[in-house]
Amino acid sequence: MRLNRVRQEYRGRVSLRVRPFPLEVNGGEAAPRDILEQEWWLAALQEPDARFAPYPGDDWPETTLPAFEAVWSASRQDEEAAHEYDLRIRTAFFGEGRNIGRPDVLLDLAREVGLDAERIEQEVGSGEARRAVLEERRLGRERYGVRGTPTVMLPDGTRITPPIAFPRMRNRRIVGVGSLPCCGEGCLDATREMFERALRSGGGV
Q1: Model pLDDT, residue 180
Q2: Hey, where are the domains in the chain?
Q3: What is the rounded CA–CA span in Å between residue 35 and residue 110?
Q4: String of DSSP letters for the chain
């Protein structure tokens, strides 16, 4: 949320590219409910302006790959709309309890932000989007050494630590949380500093 807000301030100066890295391909498990439901409250505390609500239904997504594929397809239509779409999908899952593994849900969300849903459906259905997402995952893992999300880096591969607190896990349970690196407006300032570092490096994020 804060990344998207600050991104607007740097429009035309810094380019932000969101690349897919589906963890379920690495770990063989899609969006584990028992872990995510523990992390829900931590995310809500750190992003008070974002919408979070416990997932109410029994239709938990069996896979999130369709969401990655739909956003990849959207980026080929319009980068700005793709950013909005990516955020809309996250809000639908984390704040509205909608199953983002279902193609009909993803297409409805695409229409909400003004994207060509039929084109997304075609590119996802043809397998083109899946191949592209898996290739991005391979590049992230092999070329850039990505192991988890979120991972933020400059175009030259320099890692930037996002201003968030990560949980410590043991046997699929949160056993501790690092200190919050910021709060309130301070988190926006820390995010702005990420963009300033990108400007100093002469590239995007």
Answers
A1: 83
A2: 2-147
A3: 28
A4: -HHHHHHHHTTTT---------HHHHHS-SS-HHHHHHHHHHHHHH-TTS------SS---S-SHHHHHHHHHHHHH-HHHHHHHHHHHHHHHHTT---TTSHHHHHHHHHHTT--HHHHHHHHHTTHHHHHHHHHHHHHHHTS---SSS-EE-TTS-EE--S-PPEEEETTEEEEEPPPS--THHHHHHHHHHHHHHHHHTS--
Question: Which pLDDT score, from 0 to 100, does residue 204 have?
Answer: 65
Percent of the chain with pLDDT over 90: 59
Each residue of 104-119: pLDDT tens digit?
999 999 999 999 999 9
Single-letter amino acid, residue 75: S
8-35 pLDDT tens trace: 899 888 888 889 999 998 777 888 999 9
Architecture of domain 2-147 in this structure: 3-Layer(aba) Sandwich (3.40)
